[in-house]
Design goal:
One of its GO terms (molecular function) is procollagen-proline 3-dioxygenase activity. Its EC number is 1.14.11.7. Belongs to the leprecan family. By secondary structure, the chain is α+β, with helices and mostly antiparallel strands. 46% of the residues lie in helices and 11% in strands. It has three domains: 151 residues, no CATH class; 168 residues, Serine Threonine Protein Phosphatase 5, Tetratricopeptide repeat, CATH 1.25.40; 243 residues, Jelly Rolls. An eight-stranded antiparallel beta sheet has the order 1-2-13-9-16-5-4-3. Strands 6-14-11-12 form a four-stranded antiparallel beta sheet, with no helix packed on it. It is globular.
Length: 683
Amino acid sequence: MDLTLFQYSIFAGVSVLLQAVSPISATALLEPFDRLYDSGVEAFYSSDYESVVYYMEKALRSYSELRHTKVRCRLKCKDQHPLDGSDSDLQFFDSVLRRAACLNDCIEKKTGSQSMHMASEDVIQDFNRRTPYNFLQLAYYKLNQLDKAAEAAHTYFQANLEHVEMWQNLENYKLLEGVEESYFQDREARPHQQAFTTGVKHYDDGNYEKAIEFFEEALVEYYKADVECRALCEGPQKFEEYEYLEYRPSLYRAISDHYTQVLACEHECVRELATRPGRLSPMENYLPLHYDYLQFAYFKVDKISEALECAETYLLFHKGDEFMTENMEFYKEVLGEERKPRREAERYISRHQKEAELLTVGTANLGVEYTEPNYWSSTGGREDVNRVPSGTDGWLDYVPITEKKNTTSGIARELREGGPLLYDEVKLVLNSEMLNGSQRVLFDSVITEEECLELKNVANTIVIAGDGYRGKMSPHTPNEKFEGATVLKALQYGYEGRVPLKSARLFYETSEKARKIIESYFMLNTTLYFSYTHLVCRTAVKGQQDHRNDLSHPIHADNCLLDPEAHECWKEPPAYTYRDYSALLYLNGDFDGGEFIFTEMDAKTVTASVKPRCGRMVGFSSGGENPHGVKAVTSGQRCAVALWFTLDPLYREMERLQADEVIHSLDSDNLNKELQINPRDEL
C-alpha cells in the first residue's frame, strides 16, 4: 500500500537518521578529494614523489567519481519522481520530498555524509585549473615515468596556456629519448569538443566522410554533456544580493529565488559547453557550427537530403540567414522535397526560450531586470553553396564590459606620460617606447640602499605566510612561499614596539612617494588613490627548484581577465576592474630568477624584462595593454612593495585611510588615543 505524504516524510526522516548512525564499510565510501589533494601537496613538499602520485591520482579519481555520482543520482531520481502532472500542492510536494529522499540515499550510498565532500572554493578552483597535474608531471618525471609525466604536463598546459615555462618544458619532453608523440594526451579532454576538433581537421583535409562521422559524434556528446551540465546546477546556490543571515523568505519566495538561480546556471550551460579549459570566453557559434559544417560535408558526399536537414537546423539558430537560406533553397531544388529540422535541436531551442521567459519572471522577483544574452545573433554567411562554413559568426558573441582605457566615473582621459619626477634622486631608466608597450615606465633610485635594507628587515619581521593571498602560502606555485603585510599592520607592530616605529613609518612614506611619482609621471591631473598596498616577499622552497616548469606569478593583467587565445582582456569580476595603475618597488636583487616580464596578449611573447634591484620601480597602467608576470625565483628571497592605484575614490583602500589616521595621531603626539586597527588579510 502507498504511504501517505505525512507517513512518507516521517519514514524518510527516520531513514536518514538510521543511515547516519549505521556502520558502513569505509572501503565502500568515496574519500574526500580535498583531503587526498592536501596529502599529495604535503608529500610534494617532502619530496616523497611516490606518495604524490598515489594521493594526486586518487584525488582526481575521487573528484571525478563525486561529480559522476551527483549527475547519475540526480538524473535517476528525476526519472523516478517527476514533478510534472501534479494537480495539487500535496502531489507536487510529495514528488519533491520523495526526490529529495531518493537523492540523499543514492548519493550517500557512494559518498557517506555529503558534508565530508564540501571542499573550499580554493581547492575547487585548483581542480578546475588542473593544478593536480602540475604536481603529477614533476613527480612522474622524478620517478622517471616519462610517458605519464608528458601526459600530465600536456593535460595541465591545455588549461594553463599562459604558463610559458610549462610550454618550454613540454618542448623539452619531446626532445627526450624514449618520449613518443602519443604520450601527449589530454586526460581531461571533453568528448564533445574533442570530436568536434577532430571533425574540423578531417573537414579541412577534404575527408568529408570522416568529418561527418566526427561531427555527428560531437553532437551526440554535446547533448549528453548538456544534460549533465544541467544536473550539476541542482546543487547549493547563493545570491550575492542577499545577506542570508537576515533572509527570511516565505515558502514560495524561497522556492522562486532558489529555482531562479538553478535556472540561470542551466541557461549558462550553452556557454559552459562552448568554453575550452582555461579559457574565459566560449567558442563563438559553437553548436550551430556543427550543422553548418555538416550541411556542406553532406553536400560534398552527395547526400542532399541530410544536407537540407542540417541547413534547416542551422536556420533554427539563425533565422533568415541569407547565405544558408540560399543553400537551403538550392538543396530543395535538387531534392525536389522538403525536410524538417532535427528534433533534438528544436527541443533544445524550445527549452532555451522557455528558460529565458522564466528567468525574466524570477529575476523580477529579486528586483533585477533580466537581459537575455544575444545567443543566436548571426553576422556572417556564405556567398554560395561551396563556401566554407562561416565559423565564428557571432552565435555566442561574448561581449566584455568595454571601457576606454584608464577611465574614472565613465570619463575617458587622454593617455600621457613624461611628467616631472618630483624627486631629484629618482632616475628615469626606460619609458614606454623603450619597454615596447604603452603606459609603462622604469625608475631607479626611488629609495636608498639603507632604506631597502630597513624595509627588508621590517618585512622579515612582520610578514605572514599567505597574507594578501587568502591565506594560501603558495598561491601561484608550490615551489615558492609567499609572505606579506599591509601598511596598517606595519604601523600596528611599530606602535606595539615589535618593529622600530621609524621603520614602519618608512613603509608608509615610501608607498606615498611611489604614488606621487606615478601620478606625476603619467600626468594624470587628478588624484591617484591607493587601492591596495602590500609588502610582499616570495622565497624559493629548497629542494624543489630542479626542472621548474612554472612562473612565480603567471601572466595576467591587474584589472581584467586575460584570455590569451582570444587576445582579449575581459573587464569583469572577479577581476579588480577599478584598478587603474600599478607599481612594484623592489627592495633587493640578491636572488636567482624573479625577473618581471611584460608580454603580448598571447601571454607568451615577452616584450620586456626587468631585473629587480634595490630602489628600482616599474609602473604601468593596469589594463589588458600590459599583461605581465614574474619568472620563477629559484633561490633566495625576492621582496618588494606592491602597489595598486585607482582613480575612483569609491574604491580607496580602507586600511590606507586608517593608516592615515594613525600617522595623523602620531604627528599630533596623541599617542594615548586608542588605535582602531583592523588589518585585512586578503587582497
